[in-house]
Amino acid sequence: MDVCFYEAFEEEAATLRRHLPSRIRAGFTWKTIQEAGETAPPARLISIRTQSLVPPSWFERLDGLLARTTGYDHLVELPIPCGYLPLYCHRAVAEQAMLLWMALLRKLPQQIAQFPRFHRDGLTGAECAGKNLLVVGVGHIGAEVVKIGCGLGMNVRRVDIIPERADTPIEEGLPWADIIVCAMSLNQGNRGYFSYQRLQQARPGVLFVNIARGELSPTADLVRLLDEGRLGGVALDVYENESALATALRSGKGSFPLLGRPNVILTPHNAFNTQEAVERKSIQSVQQIEHFLKHRCFLWPAP
Question: 8, 93, 97, 99: most buried, per Cβ within 10 A?
């Protein structure tokens, strides 16, 4: 086997098979490395998403690792050549952010819950136009969120560590915002960035959306802020300790403290998952693999 794909859901695996040349021998599983339970890597080149944990005993048997992700925070300490896919899903993820904040604004979970009784008490929502949208992290994904917000007639401000991308400091943006979207890249310096102390600075009732990395917004802090009424709603596509959480939930033994709240929307790290993005992802994955098998390096190496 030339390459083994972990965490490959059905549609993605089918698209990868369609684009892979017949000369490349590939294996596929929807499982993470830890769920698969293998004692040794099945190929010298493996491909993962964000939830697989590579056993240290595998490193000497691996030539390389391709992460089919736009982020690379989970690769920085691995002692083997690693590649990633920086360009395939920024529009898809930005549209998911819009989907989530609009669902919170219009109280969509409550609307669905009240359909069996068909009444509208407590369902009055709000429109996007004129709302203040704060985008924190203005890379490929954040820039798309900015475009979408402007197109919806929202007032948009940007926070970023790169001065050319930003127009406001976080201290001024938080009390101004009606909606905060976290689109930051994760690094060792910003873990827990949206802490209880920081989000206390936001105006009461603000909506918080995270489509970046769960470690940026500690779950316990979000629970406390919701309980105190400081946050009006939370929507997450990413989670702290996501690998362990996903494994536990798939086994039917897991729980999550935000699950079941009427002003919380949770999606299973699925923001990237559109037909168009899966197609781009598969094409770029094959480009990476072909280049690595030929040259022993990636077209897009992890920084």
Answer: 97
What pLDDT does 78 receive? 96
Backbone dihedral region for residue 67 (phi beyond 0: left; psi -120 to 50: alpha; all else: beta): beta
Contacting residues for 153 by C-beta, under 8 A, at least 6 apart? 128, 129, 130
What are the residue ranges spanned by the domains of the chain?
Answer: 3-88+275-295, 90-266
Average pLDDT for 158-183 = 98
H/E stretch holding 33 reads helix 33-36
pLDDT above 90: residue 253:
no
* Confidence (pLDDT) at 163: 95
> Cβ neighbours of residue 67 under 8 Å, at least 6 residues apart?
47, 48, 49, 50, 74, 75, 82, 83, 84, 85, 302
Whether residue 148 contacts residue 95, with contact meaning beta carbons closer than 8 Å, is answered with yes
Angle between helices 275-295 and 90-105 (to 10 degrees): 150
Q: CA-to-CA distance for 233 and 205, rounded, in angstroms?
A: 7
pLDDT in tens, 259-291: 999 999 999 999 999 999 999 999 999 999 999
How many CB atoms neighbour CB 108 within 10 A? 16
Candidates 3.40.50.720, 1.10.390.10, 3.10.20.30, 2.60.40.10; CATH matching 90-266: 3.40.50.720
Across residues 48-73, what is the average pLDDT? 96
Q: What separation in angstroms does the CA of 212 have from each of 21, 126, 139, 185, 294?
A: 32, 25, 11, 7, 33
